[in-house]
Amino acid sequence: MPSVIAPLSSLPQFDPRRVPVLGVDAHLPRVPAAAQTAQALRLRFDSAPEWVPEVVHERDFTDRPLRHAAVLIPIVMRERATVLLTERTVHLSTHSGQVAFPGGSADPEDANPAATALREAWEEVGLEGRYVEVLGELATYRTGTGFSITPVVALVEPDCTLNPNAYEVADVFEVPLDYLLDPSHHRRHAFEWEGVTREWFSMPYEDAAGKTHFIWGATAGMLRNFYRFMLA
Questions:
Q1: Domain 23-231 annotated CATH 3.90.79.10
Q2: pTM for the whole structure
């Protein structure tokens, strides 16, 4: 029998932006700028250290069988490196309107998580594989909605062309990598519903046009793990 506990994003009138901030991790060190160059990132994944992911499993909100998925963490190698993110359209059945990495469920013909992530990035934002250099994978992240997600980190050429799928993607934007790897921008939240407490990170980012992109939940959790990997 399916669980009666729904994911927070599906609760009526739930808005993660309105949940109080419990703390900000400004006391933790930032990832040095020298570690964020293309060559430094390649070396990091070529000789990956032993590390412990901080967020690996959200509290379960479903009893359905685990489904495998992959996302691409696309680092655009501009003069100041950025991470390419999407805002999902509001009519989608899962995670509608939320900030996410390009990605989705694995298909039987996908050879590995990188193949899933690259296929989904092409389908969602029109990112061609010829612009992408896969570096490696981070620890899997299990969502409360029953997905086991493998984050695939990759370098992306800055002159890439994109063609977002308007049905799935409302917006494509970039956030500086050094902003996301600075824990002074990592905020902690918690929310209790029907006796179950859910905790998560958020990393709000205001772009040059003044729009605030609210990065939270699984996307923020995987970025937090990327931070831990980079400092290990």
A1: yes
A2: 0.90
